[in-house]
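Give me structure tokens for this 255-residue protein.
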Amino acid sequence: MQTESQDLLILLVFSTLSMFSLATFFVYTVYRYQKRIQQKQKELFAAVIQAQEHEKERIANDLHDQVGPLLSNIKFNINLFDSPNKLQQFRLDNNKLIDVVINNIRTAAYNLLPKVLYDFGLIEALEDLCELMSRGTNIDIQFFSNNTLTPSKVLTKQSELTIYRIVMEIVNNAVKYSKATSIKVKVDLGNETCNISVKDNGIGFDLNKIVVNKNHGMGIKNIFSRVDVFNGHCQLNSNQSGTTYQIIFQTKNLV
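Here you go.
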């Protein structure tokens, strides 16, 4: 009888220790998971802030490099003007410069806050963006879309703006660095997923440099950061035949 009691006590102690160990392991696992989530949130927040600062820096550089010199040139022409006989040529020269300044400011303002996005939605805004960028370069930028989203499902303006910024960053990088002659942008917007594809026929780049060098390819890192904001997935492939981005969002995360 005593032996049975001892065995029962041992079993009870063992069971209690096992349950305590299991509970401790469970609490520790939850703690580790929460810490990882918190760290991921901090990294994501920092990346978003970095992307915003990068955007502001790009626009500031555009205004400084494109608008500033033109205004200085206009001021220089005004100071040189000293003859009524040159009035017609003076007007022509400065009108051309002023038109360029207005166009540059309009482009910078469009990049900062695309009005068409808020008035007509994502598809129209992206189509307008591709057309605008194509006109300003010798690159053929084509836009394709397929919108089967149920009318009752409407993307939030924040998600639309994020997608718009992603596509703009990709196309802008291709225009600046890829030496491409063709860029194709395709957006398939459905009830389950939003699929975005951007492909150019440029010279490509070394993906390893993006991973190793933290100061290299900030634009690409900003793209991935923006994709992460809405729990999307981005696949990037680049070689001597060109660069392709494949981005997938779950539509439920965008509405």
